[in-house]
């Protein structure tokens, strides 16, 4: 009987393994989708779903993304887009942490919210959605609030944390836990036409500097709400920061904050 390696090499087309072959390998070798995906990438082949990545990402980089572990804290407006984009890129392990269920007011911007899943847990819905999008991604839904008490356990094995929270005190707690666990944190926040993104590495305390004069529970989103296109754009910038960290390439927003004003199409970089 042919080995998995022999089968994959024999069935590759121009360096690509199509989903039908990946599915066949899963069934015939009794393996999981993640196991077969890793085997494909280790052979310097590429699952065909990523063929539009290959002019920007090598097979080696795609393997690094597959082996990357990201925790997304919050599965609301920002979180849904972050999770979806990471999964479509091929980031192999995503932990989704959110205690809430979908409500009607989420429908204007939250990618996974639908009329027929109102009332359902956000984290569980995210897991179902991502399995439909990319079965090679391991997604771990956690229907619980992130706090300083449970945070270290929830993120201890991840490479990067994405902040998709809507509470300033919770963000600061998250920053403290990331500092304790020595994990980089990518922060994003949206309010109306405006938003901000930064990347904080251990020892930098960037979020504490940003929110040093803020005493409330929430930021400007409390008064301005959240617009879908601003949420999508901010989430995409967060994902770009995460990918650069996982690959160890490019320049991040470390020590800087990118402030976006989409009403006037203004982008301002603030250095700390």
What Rg do the Cα atoms give? Answer: 19 Å
SSE succession: HEHHEHEHEHEHEHEEHHHEE
Strand order of the largest sheet: 5-4-3-6-7-8-9-10
CATH class placement of the largest domain: Alpha Beta
Helix content: 40-55%
- Second CATH tier, the architecture of the largest domain: 3-Layer(aba) Sandwich
Strand percentage lies at 15-25%
Fourth-level CATH superfamily of the largest domain: NAD(P)-binding Rossmann-like Domain
Write up this protein:
Helix 1 (4-11) runs antiparallel to helix 2, helix 2 (19-29) crosses helix 3 and helix 5 packs across helix 11 (228-247). The chain has helices at residues 4-11, 19-29, 33-42, 59-66, 77-89, 122-133, 151-155, 168-181, 206-210, 221-224, 228-247; strands spanning 16-17, 46-47, 69-73, 93-97, 138-142, 160-163, 185-191, 194-200, 256-261, 266-271. The strands form two sheets. An eight-stranded mixed beta sheet has the order 5-4-3-6-7-8-9-10, sandwiched between helices. A two-stranded parallel sheet has the order 1-2. It is globular. A hairpin with a 2-residue loop joins strand 7 and strand 8. The termini are far apart. It is of the alpha/beta class and 272 residues long. The longest helix has 20 residues, at 228-247. It has two domains: 4-54; 68-271, NAD(P)-binding Rossmann-like Domain (Rossmann fold, 3-Layer(aba) Sandwich), CATH 3.40.50.720.
Looking at this protein, list some descriptive labels.
Rossmann fold; alpha/beta; 10 strands; single chain; 8-stranded mixed β-sheet; 11 helices
Q: How would you summarize this macromolecular structure in one to three sentences?
A:
By secondary structure, the protein is an alpha/beta fold.
């Amino acid at each position: 009987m042919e080995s998995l390696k022999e089968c994959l090499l024999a069935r590759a087309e121009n360096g690509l393994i199509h989903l039908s072959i990946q599915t066949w390998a899963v069934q015939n070798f009794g393996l999981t989708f993640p196991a077969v995906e890793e085997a494909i990438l280790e052979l310097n082949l590429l699952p065909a779903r990523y063929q539009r990545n290959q002019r920007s990402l090598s097979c080696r980089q795609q393997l690094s993304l597959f082996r990357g572990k990201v925790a997304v804290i919050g599965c609301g407006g920002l979180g849904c887009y972050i999770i979806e984009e990471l999964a479509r890129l091929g980031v192999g392990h995503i932990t989704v942490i959110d205690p809430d269920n979908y409500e009607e007011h989420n429908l204007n911007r939250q990618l996974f919210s639908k009329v027929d899943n109102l009332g359902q847990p956000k984290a569980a819905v995210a897991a179902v959605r991502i399995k439909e999008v990319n079965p090679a991604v391991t997604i771990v839904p956690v229907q619980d609030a992130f706090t300083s008490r449970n945070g270290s356990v929830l993120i201890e094995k991840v490479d990067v944390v994405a902040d998709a929270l809507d509470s300033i005190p919770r963000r600061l707690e998250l920053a403290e836990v990331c500092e304790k666990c020595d994990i980089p944190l990518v922060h994003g926040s949206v309010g109306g036409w405006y938003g901000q993104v930064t990347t904080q590495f251990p020892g930098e305390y960037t979020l504490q500097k940003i929110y040093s004069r803020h005493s409330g529970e929430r930021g400007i989103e409390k008064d301005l709400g959240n617009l879908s296109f601003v949420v999508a754009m901010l989430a995409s910038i967060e994902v770009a920061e995460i990918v650069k960290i996982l690959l160890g390439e490019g320049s991040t927003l470390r020590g800087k904050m990118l402030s976006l004003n989409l009403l006037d199409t203004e982008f301002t970089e603030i250095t700390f």
